[in-house]
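ok so i was messing around last nite and threw this chain in just to see what happens. nothing serious, just curious
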Amino acid sequence: FATPSVPVASDASDALIAVRRAVALEPVVDAAGWYKYTGVIPVAGDINIVLRGHSQYGTYQYIDDLLIEPIPACADIQGLSVDAVDAHSVTLGFEDSGADSYEYAILPAGQELAETDFAEMEDYTISGLNAETAYTFYVRGVCGENRSEVASINFSTTVACFPVSNLQIDAVTTNSVTISFDDEHGAAGYLYAIKPAGAEVADEDYAALEDYTIAGLNAATSYVIYVKADCGSEGHSAVVSKAFATECDVITIAEGAPYLMNFNDYTSGVPVCWDSNNSYVEVSNSTYYMTLCDGSKYLRFNTDSYSPIYVTLPNFSNDLSELMISFMYQSESPSGSGPVEIGYMTDVNDPSTFTLLNSFPATAAYSSTTEWTAASYMFPASLAGVEGKIAIRYVGASYMEYATGIDNIVVALKPSCEPVSNLNIDAVTQNSVTISFDDPNSASSYAYAIVEAGAEAPADEAYSELEGNTIGGLNASTDYVIYIKALCSDTDHSDPISAAFATECDVITIAEGAPYLMNFNSVSSDLPSCWNNVASNAYVSTSFASGMSAYDGAALEFHAAGQYVSLPKFSNDLSELRISLVYASEGTNSSPLSIGYMTDPADASTYVEIAQYPISEKIWQSIEVAMPASLAGIDANIAIKYAGGGSNWYSWIDNVRVIINPSCEKTSASVSNITVSSAQINIDAVSGVLGYAYAVIPSGNALSDGDFISTSETLINHEGLAANTAYDLYVKVICSATDESEAFGPVTFRTDCDILALPYIEDFEGMEATTSYYSIKHNPPCWTILGNRSTQAYSLSEYPSICVNSGNGNKYAYASSGDNEKTGNDLTIVIASTSDVLFAVLPQFSDNLSGAVMSFTYAYENSIFSPAFTVGYITDNDSTTYTAFDFTPSMAAAKTRYSGHILLPVLPDNARLAIKAVGRTSSWYTTGIDNVSVIMPQDVTSDYTLCQGEDLVIDSDVKAYADDLIVGNNNVDLGMQYGAWNEAAQHSIASVIVNEIEERTIQYRISPSMLPYEVKHEDQLITTLTTGTVGDFIELEAMLANCVFVTAQITIVEEGQATALNDLSEGSIAVAPNPVKAGEQVTVLHNLTGEQMRGLKAEVFDINGKLINRQNIESEHITIDGFNAAGVYMLRLTNAAGNSFRAQVLVK
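result:
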């Protein structure tokens, strides 16, 4: 609040006259409060008193208890103040109010005032007070018998003994400190105490300060000094303190007493007596891209290429030239971390005082098992007398802050016989090495040992005296390590130092029948011995692109762009040689492979190309290049260049072979006019030769000389081949009776498929299929895919495509569980363009398909965007002749399995059934086709209509899918369950779902007197039997309107047998396997015993009821053959009692 005032005016027009306030108001600072004000009107007369408030910042002022009265008989004290105060007295002042005298009281602050506390005031200075005490002074005027209001003021006495000021540390040694301070009050004396930093100080720790230099301290220790003034009877002043640290001892290193530092006793910063120029170096236990060397701590340098870090070790009394330093170090990054540099400097904060002596490069890339690298350096004799501390400098090699750590530092005396230094490999041949080195000892002799790389360091007895700088007797193309040590005397030898080298490769001579071969399988390093690469991303590997197989174990992988690989040196003239190899690429972004030569295997600019070969995506292709005659006399190595490509730039080579150019050149050949059992071999003619030899062997079989057939023809019709089989063709040229070419080949081809007979059932199982996202596409055997199908090895991501696809994560068209789940193979369609059309053409059939039933299941990944399809036929294997059937697939829902059934109309004789697929969007979605069958119903006399999958009605509790036979009253078995016969009535004994069509077998037994007889199924007439004799077995097949195939089996029996109950409830049979492959046997599974086995015979009937096999059964183990062609067969067992047991057999 502003200071209030009381204006006075003689009338309304007079200027306001501010009246001097009678009582000093304490301003309101921290809180609101009530304050007393008393004022005297200095004028007489008829006046108006005006109160004017001065509020600030929107605050409020309040006035209360307003009292206007005549001036009292004894005026109040005004202007009370404290004019001076010290430890024991105070001098006060106030205005004379005109009182006769004044009374005062001084009480400790807060003590209640009593009338008896007042005394007559004789002096404005009052003594006898206590130091450092808060008081309240009270005063009042005495006017005869009257007393004024009491005025009061608070004050505090000062200290009696003042502390010193400006305490300074003037000098520090290893064991003493010199201090200074100011004392404006002149104490009688001073007390001090010195304690280690962090320790508490007590009164008994103080002593009289007699000298400003205090000794007896420990070196390299942090202390705090405490000082207080001694004022005699007035006591002691407050304490003043200052921290300091004593200097480090100068360390003397003696024999057997090195300086050791492993940092484990420190938590941060640098060790005591070490100095650094910034905080980016500190003791750390971080394992971020670092491992721990020894224990839990190391010294971590962490900076970029712009901020060098300097660290100095403690001061040693030894001359630098007497010392050596060793340590372990590790880098976070071989390219981002900088080297560890050893030197000396006089001022850690002045980089110009650093002198570099040796540098240790960044170590290999970090891994969780990376070992630390050992390093050591001996300070040279030239440093004798040089002043400075051992220093380490670290500067990062990148703008990023990659770290380096050091640990296990040892500073020791150099040995009396120092190791040699600067060991260099000056020259290497196939069998020798020439070395040089520096010797600080001027030793009388030296010893050496050479071991193969990877062997243990040699023992003392393995060393030999070095008699010259060239050491011979080495093996060619071998990695070695040489060890050298100085022999200063008979008993004083230096530690060894080592250097690695590799002897030169032998020059290889290629002779007739002695080629150079490399399949990379026995190579344990990046490259085979004596190979060279300019870049570093070509190396032997056993990893290949997904969906791609190895050619012959390991291969040489080109892992990045710009790779140049040269082969070993050959003594032969380049113009005499020929190189062959196999080559494969990862993808379309790979670059072609180039074959050439290099005059300097280490200089890519010397590469000259001879031939270039296009990419071969995930398919191994053969390459053969003859070095041209123009290379005669050129000194060079055969070389391979891989330029690289985009994101898929890996490529591989394998089975490299270098030979002498043959005197009898090989030719080439091709295959045409392939049929089911033959192929036409076309040999490219070569003039002036005796003839040719060719071999046709199953693909993948090993080739032998006995496989070749001699011929003088170049156009050969080779017969006797198996249908639908892959073969390899090889051809040799016969130049003379003693000279023939190498074999050309293989040329792989596949014979056509046999024309198949119905019934045809294909569920796509048991065949090569796309098994993962990256995999080669496969056609169903004997199917033909027409249209612009992608041939890339990327399966579902490359389209358009129709291929056999497995259930390993790629069944996008099906649900992941439940009735619509798909686990096996199917035929997957992928099209991502509305302009792309593909045809999947079924095999050729020998039957006329008119009247046959084609069935299949299908599902869509997306009911709107998955490829649409129709079903029809083509002629002459020409997609332009495609004619669609009257069939519209349901597309009501995605990931739902539907069934399709088509009664085939009259078709041309050369018609082939086909599925036409059309894209519906630019994104790839799939459509799946499965369980394709073509079946010809026999003896169908009743009309029926086909139904769609969504109309399928299964009115039996028994359900199963193809290849499973589940029968009778949910009794699961591989056969048929028989029960009692009803008189002249049908009895359903088997029900199976094949391609989602229910097949039922119905048994009838009738006698001749019951003819004519109507065969019905669920009141639907199948046929009417008009004739028959005892023993006749008749089987009829029909497709009913509710998508049920019905097989009616009628047996004509003697009179009375039709109505008798045969007790067969104990006997049943089944067959396994079922289905069975054509030509194989089946085993009858049964529980027939005793009388049921007597006189047992077996009969096999085909689908037309023709008996094709009969045999007597002699033992309980029953095997039946006669299933030589695909179809449906009936197996019947009959015993001497006339009991009959039957099973249906499906032959694929």
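not much to say yet. The longest strand covers residues 403-413.
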